[in-house]
């Protein structure tokens, strides 16, 4: 990493011209192997959101730099599959003469395979880069087309990627007990008890954040998330096998893991899976996240595969008291940094000279000033004017845009601190918003997004309620005006782990995972006018314990707002807010002011006083 640029690099400019020559080389490799096509997902062996540079095969082949996607290359055609976040971005980064863009949900790869594979075709795939569940869907699609899904022993892209980066060997360190809140041996015992209860002999752990949580360790193998890329097998007796490169393990970490954890080289995983199979063990495997390669090794070896969720996912999501205390402390620290940035932006933005990159760098600088910043939690989305309408916009030197007076500026950012992970979005006007074209529409949309944010923040709901049951609260004010947004309303957030953590979420998509006390989730409705501006207001909230409501008959859970930073009052239409909504906003701003004021320099204190005046 270029340390001069801090934790985010802006020189990685999209280049659509890479597609044609690289696809030609891939097709030559396909022909050499007797394949009619090959699938290239944006994934590594762990199926995580953040992948190391050597696993960015989709980006290398196509130029597409989004965090989710897939390409399928056939002899005479190719398609790239992206979700609603990237419908604009993909056209800027990918050669549309080579790749036909398809929507991952509305136009899934399975349908495209059925419609485009000819009878008898052989479609290759890397079984390390597809989950068992995904591979099963792809196999059925091939069968319906009269074709064959062919597992490859090595990846075809790797065979043609001459300067492919090396695999990472980031050091793995213990995560302090005062932040974890529970000793790793206690976690091993607690989680293994669930295996014993379910009559399962072992569970295969493939998600590095689960491994990091279970063993109270953190790593540095991928950007922005402290993950130790590794695999583990948890046994019903509370012992575990950890498969990780020995070069990552410090003496301190080895001592920390103790005698409950046996370390193995990664290449030993195949043998360990075969031993489970030979002993006819019943093995839990999360087929929605585990690689098809692991599933096939277990099946071929004779193991009894019990499909089930990763047993660490729910306990990891339900933060304990120490983790929640850490999240609160992290958000106060981060809120002060973000508020200093907003005050700086309000002073400097209208003068001219601030760009999307310089703003992102300034924000990182204020976070670095805390002395506690470990990393960003994701690349800052710093979008001015029309760039703000690109939901997951990533600014580069090629796309960097000045922040002009009258612009609507969206900044979505987050930080990693040892005691917590943050994620916050604010949308502000640069200078006097009255100079913005269509300012009446902007204020209307902004206020409707705010109404949705407040409605969700104020929600009370019984135990067992899922995020899909609450999603309408964030959208209703927009729906009443014939408006909507195409991303989820909320995602789970880890404790010094992934900024996107499951299984909880708030979304229109149906799901049955209850919002349990201790879960942290984002509250981020938005609105995007293509070619003009984007609006999003995001805070993180923690699900509270059920408590009684006066006159009620059953206790209700709710949300504790963790994020602390002003919301731009200049873009609000007060008359659109109900009395209750105004009361929430004024109380929130009073809390922001009272909590952050002592942490700010005098000039920023004066700014915060004005920014948090009652509406």
UniProtKB/TrEMBL annotation:
The keyword GTP-binding does not apply. Residues 22-154 form the Creatinase N-terminal domain. InterPro entries: Creatin/AminoP/Spt16_N, Creatinase/aminopeptidase-like, Creatinase_N, Pept_M24, Pept_M24B, Peptidase_M24_C, X-Pro_aminopeptidase_P. Residues 556-614 form the Peptidase M24 C-terminal domain. Keywords: Hydrolase, Metal-binding. SUPFAM superfamilies: Creatinase/aminopeptidase, Creatinase/prolidase N-terminal domain. GO terms for molecular function: metal ion binding; metalloaminopeptidase activity. Residues 326-545 form the Peptidase M24 domain. It comes from the Bacteria. The keyword Metal-binding applies. GO terms for cellular component: cytoplasm. Belongs to the peptidase M24B family. This is M24 family metallopeptidase.
């Amino acid at each position: 990493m270029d340390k001069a640029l801090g934790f985010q690099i802006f020189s990685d400019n999209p280049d659509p011209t890479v597609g044609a020559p690289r696809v030609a080389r891939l097709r030559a490799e396909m022909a050499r192997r007797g394949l009619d096509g090959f699938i290239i997902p944006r994934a590594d062996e762990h199926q995580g959101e953040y992948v190391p540079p050597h696993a960015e095969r989709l980006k290398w082949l196509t130029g597409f730099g989004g965090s989710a996607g897939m390409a399928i290359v056939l002899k005479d055609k190719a398609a790239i599959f992206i979700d609603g976040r990237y419908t604009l971005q993909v056209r800027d980064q990918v050669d549309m003469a080579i790749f036909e863009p398809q929507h991952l949900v509305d136009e899934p790869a399975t349908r495209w395979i059925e419609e485009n594979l000819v009878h008898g075709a052989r479609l290759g795939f890397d079984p390390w880069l597809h989950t068992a569940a995904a591979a099963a869907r792809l196999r059925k699609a091939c069968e319906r087309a009269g074709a064959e899904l062919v597992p490859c022993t090595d990846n075809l892209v790797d065979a043609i990627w001459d300067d492919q980066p090396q695999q990472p060997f980031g050091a793995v360190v213990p995560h302090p007990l005062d932040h974890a809140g529970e000793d790793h041996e206690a976690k091993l015992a607690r989680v293994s008890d669930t295996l014993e209860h379910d009559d399962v002999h072992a569970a295969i752990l493939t998600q590095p954040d689960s491994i990091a949580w279970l063993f109270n360790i953190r790593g540095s193998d991928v950007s922005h998330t402290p993950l130790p890329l590794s695999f583990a097998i948890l046994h019903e007796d509370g012992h575990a096998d950890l498969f990780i490169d020995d070069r990552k393990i410090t003496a301190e970490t080895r001592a920390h893991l103790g005698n409950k954890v046996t370390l193995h080289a990664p290449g030993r995983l195949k043998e360990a899976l075969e031993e489970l199979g030979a002993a006819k063990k019943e093995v839990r495997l999360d087929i929605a996240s585990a690689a098809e390669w692991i599933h096939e090794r277990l099946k071929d070896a004779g193991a009894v595969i019990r499909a089930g969720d990763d047993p660490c996912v729910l306990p990891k999501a339900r933060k304990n008291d120490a983790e929640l205390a850490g999240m609160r402390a992290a958000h106060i620290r981060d809120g002060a940094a973000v508020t200093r940035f907003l005050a700086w932006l309000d002073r400097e933005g209208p003068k001219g000279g601030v760009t999307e990159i310089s703003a992102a760098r300034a924000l990182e600088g204020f976070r670095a000033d805390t002395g506690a910043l470990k990393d960003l939690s994701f690349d800052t989305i710093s979008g001015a004017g029309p760039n703000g309408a690109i939901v997951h916009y990533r600014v580069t030197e090629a796309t960097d845009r000045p922040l002009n007076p009258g612009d609507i500026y969206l900044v979505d950012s987050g930080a990693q601190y040892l005691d917590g992970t943050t994620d916050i979005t604010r949308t502000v006007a640069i200078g006097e918003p009255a100079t913005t074209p269509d300012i009446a529409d902007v204020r209307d949309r902004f206020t409707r997004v705010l109404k949705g944010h407040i409605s969700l923040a104020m929600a009370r709901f019984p135990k067992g309620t899922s995020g899909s049951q609450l999603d309408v609260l964030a959208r209703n004010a927009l729906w009443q005006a014939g408006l909507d947004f195409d991303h989820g309303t909320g995602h789970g957030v880890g404790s010094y782990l992934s900024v996107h953590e499951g299984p909880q979420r708030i979304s229109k998509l149906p799901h049955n995972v209850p919002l349990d006390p201790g879960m942290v989730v984002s509250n981020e409705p938005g609105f995007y006018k293509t070619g003009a501006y984007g609006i999003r207001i995001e805070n993180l909230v923690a699900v509270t314990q059920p408590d009684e409501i006066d006159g009620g008959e059953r206790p209700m859970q709710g949300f504790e707002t963790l994020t602390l930073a002003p919301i731009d009052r200049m873009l609000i239409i007060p008359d659109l807010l109900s009395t209750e909504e105004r009361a929430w906003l004024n109380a929130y701003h009073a809390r922001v002011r009272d909590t952050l004021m002592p942490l700010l320099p005098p000039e920023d204190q004066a700014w915060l006083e004005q920014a948090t005046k009652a509406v």
